[in-house]
Design goal:
Elements (H helix, E strand, L loop, with lengths): L1 H13 L1 E12 L2 E12 L3 E5 L6 H9 L6 E6 L2 E2 L5 H6 L2 E4 L11 H5 L14 H15 L15 H14 L4 E5 L7 H16 L3 E5 L3 H7 L2 E6 L2 E7 L5 H10 L1 E2 L4 E2 L4 E2 L2
Parallel strand pairs: 3-8, 3-9, 6-7, 7-8, 11-13
Antiparallel strand pairs: 1-2, 1-4, 4-5, 9-10, 10-12
Helix pairs in contact: 5-6, 6-7
Length: about 270
């Protein structure tokens, strides 16, 4: 029995693709992130929740390389990771899809997917044929209904633009995605479309940190929730172990319910 327990523990550790431990960062004496820890497993979606200013975006930017942590450790697939800028993060297979999407509106899908990493022919000219073929391949896997390859992305719907941003992230074999409010400002139909994209990414074994304010989306898409308040990690919980009201209690009051694992910033739930 003890041998079986040890084997299960080893398997769980081996499946972790990200481990952020005791991470902190301050700005002008303000502790934006205060000794926060979080992990992410293979093919898992972890939703990071909290009020504006709770520290969730700053915390996740330590992983994306947008900020350099003051203290703490980051391990990727069990190995210590030196992530000091976005280029370092990309080298570890980490890609970030920000709420603004950062797309070039006046060019088409293929041009956006290969922006800054264009394919060229033997004569040094842009290989538009090869780039469109790759674009059709990756979009066909991600969103088979997408057909608007020749149009500038500014003509696409919000859900289609989100598809392009996700395709750009996974085109070069990213295995860890950070998604910042992917359904913000989208209608119900487009929100459902993005949800299907996230489910497809999970099936492909891609691991996702999902920053969101939408409790309904979180319970539909995430495997676990992690809640931050005042720069600290209140706690984490499998979505099946907590209710929506309990998660709201974590967000608003900083109280950790029985089904959650408390962090250093948690209060005991009454």
């Amino acid at each position: 029995m003890q041998e079986q327990t040890a084997t299960n523990a080893d398997t769980q550790v081996a499946s972790k693709v990200v481990e952020m431990t005791d991470c902190s960062i301050s700005f002008g004496g303000i502790h934006a992130v205060d000794h926060a820890s979080l992990d992410l497993h293979q093919g898992e979606v972890v939703a990071l929740l909290g009020h504006n200013g709770a520290g969730k975006s700053t915390f996740i930017k330590l992983l994306s390389g947008a900020y350099k942590r003051d203290t703490g450790n980051i391990r990727i697939r069990g190995e210590e990771a030196a992530i000091n800028n976005p280029r370092d993060a990309k080298a570890y297979g980490i890609e970030t899809i920000y709420q603004t999407l950062a797309l070039a509106d006046n060019v088409d899908t293929a041009a956006n997917l290969f922006l800054g990493r264009e394919l060229r022919t033997a004569w040094g000219t842009l290989d538009d044929v090869a780039m469109e073929a790759r674009a059709r391949e990756v979009m066909g896997r991600l969103n088979p209904r997408f057909q608007r390859f020749k149009e500038p992305v500014k003509a696409l719907s919000g859900g289609q633009r989100q598809s392009v941003a996700i395709a750009r992230a996974i085109l070069f074999n990213a295995q860890i995605l950070i998604m910042d409010e992917p359904t913000a400002a989208l209608g119900p139909q487009e929100t459902a479309q993005v949800g299907e994209l996230i489910k497809q990414l999970k099936k492909d074994g891609i691991s996702i940190f999902l920053i969101s304010h939408d409790i309904e989306d979180v319970f539909e898409l995430a495997d676990r929730v992690a809640v931050m308040k005042n720069g600290q990690m209140v706690g984490t919980a499998p979505v099946h172990a907590v209710t929506k009201d309990e998660v709201l209690g974590m967000i608003i009051l900083g109280k950790c319910p029985p089904g959650a694992t408390p962090g250093p910033g948690a209060m005991d739930a009454e």
